[in-house]
Design a protein that fits this description.
The strands form two sheets. Strands 1-2-9-4-7-10 form a six-stranded antiparallel beta sheet. It has a four-stranded antiparallel beta sheet with strand order 3-8-5-6, with no helix packed on it. Strand 5 (about 50-55) and strand 6 form a beta hairpin. Helix 1 packs parallel to helix 3 (about 135-160), helix 4 crosses helix 6 (about 195-205) and helix 7 packs across helix 10 (about 260-265). It starts with a strand and ends in a 33-residue tail after the last helix. About 40% of the residues lie in helices and about 20% in strands. With about 300 residues, the chain is of the alpha+beta class. The protein has helices at about 95-105, 120-130, 135-160, 165-175, 185-190, 195-205, 210-230, 235-240, 245-255, 260-265; strands spanning about 1-5, 20-25, 30-35, 40-50, 50-55, 60, 65-70, 75-80, 85-95, 110-115.
Length: about 300
């Protein structure tokens, strides 16, 4: 397991906001953390992978794009999935300000926020913590950035609570067809709406187009098949409805930085360790579900 960490050892007594630890974790299947009565507020963004969080008797399953919040005073434990381990950006905070902000935005009882999809704001927090400045100045900068994070989480929660059930129906439709073919017309017809409406609704709910979401799900399925089966790469491409295995391989490499074959060779000898350090989101040429607001790309 690899981690990039920034520690702060000396608390500032007069500061209402203290960053104890922040960093990026590239977890493996052995990753586990537990606190009986937490003296820190933990906020973590999942860049990739899946895992489990137990908090005050409730169970949650954060995955890519999600944020989980473990409040001061809570009893919690969290662990990374062995087959699809987390990459996550996190901060452990002390002082009254973190919980006061969460309470002010109505997030005092929130543990899991689905579909946040804002990796950059957490990377910005970590970058600020690494500045060569006095510790008190760093805490002031990080406090402002944390306020941005909390505000963005609140906005997402507020919008999600007002979204119609149609958005979830669209996502379920795509999830059921990761190994199939889907057109935007078929997707829109599943909720008896126009393609333009379906795309706008999905983007509002999940921060990305249906095409980008389906492509991401297909790439995650490809990772799983590469880790857990002996299927050749061309057969995995066929199962995921990519007619051209070279296109599939290039798409995988553009998103993950390594080819499917390299990924398989790398993860198996090292205990299923994920090498995906900087996913980039909506990548690759469009084959299905193009956004009608964007110009059509040339064919392969």
């Amino acid at each position: 397991m690899k981690e990039e960490l920034r520690f702060f050892y000396a608390e500032v007594p007069s500061s209402p906001f203290f960053v104890e630890l922040t960093g990026i974790s590239y977890c493996d299947g052995s990753y586990y953390c537990e606190r009986d009565e937490s003296d820190v507020t933990v906020v973590e963004y999942i860049v990739r992978g899946r895992g489990t969080v137990q908090c005050d008797g409730e169970r949650f399953t954060p995955e890519e794009g999600d944020v989980y919040i473990l409040h001061q005073g809570s009893r919690h434990a969290y662990s990374s999935d062995a087959d699809d381990p987390w990459i996550k950006i996190f901060c452990n905070l002390k002082g009254n300000l973190a919980e006061d902000l969460l309470r002010a935005y109505g997030l005092q009882d929130t543990v899991l926020v689905r579909g946040f999809w804002n990796e950059q704001i957490f990377r910005d927090f970590y970058t600020l913590s690494c500045l060569k400045e006095p510790q008190e100045k760093i805490f002031q900068r990080c406090a402002l950035k944390f306020h941005e994070i909390v505000s963005a989480l609140y906005t997402l929660q507020s919008e999600a609570s007002s979204l119609p059930d149609e958005a979830q129906q669209l996502r379920d439709y795509l999830d059921d067809r990761v190994f199939g073919r889907v057109t935007i017309d078929e997707l829109a017809a599943s909720i008896f709406r126009s393609p333009d409406y379906a795309i706008k609704l999905f983007r509002k709910a999940y921060g990305q187009t249906p095409y980008a979401y389906l492509l991401r799900q297909k790439m995650q399925a490809a990772e799983n098949l590469l880790r857990t089966t002996q299927l050749p790469c061309y057969e995995i491409a066929r199962k995921l409805q990519f007619e051209d295995p070279h296109y599939f391989s290039n798409l995988f490499k553009r998103q993950h930085g390594i080819s499917p074959r390299q990924y398989r060779n790398a993860v198996r000898p090292q205990g299923r360790r994920s090498l995906l350090e900087d996913p980039t989101g909506d990548t690759g040429r469009r084959q299905r579900l193009p956004d009608p607001k964007e110009p059509a790309p040339p064919g392969p």
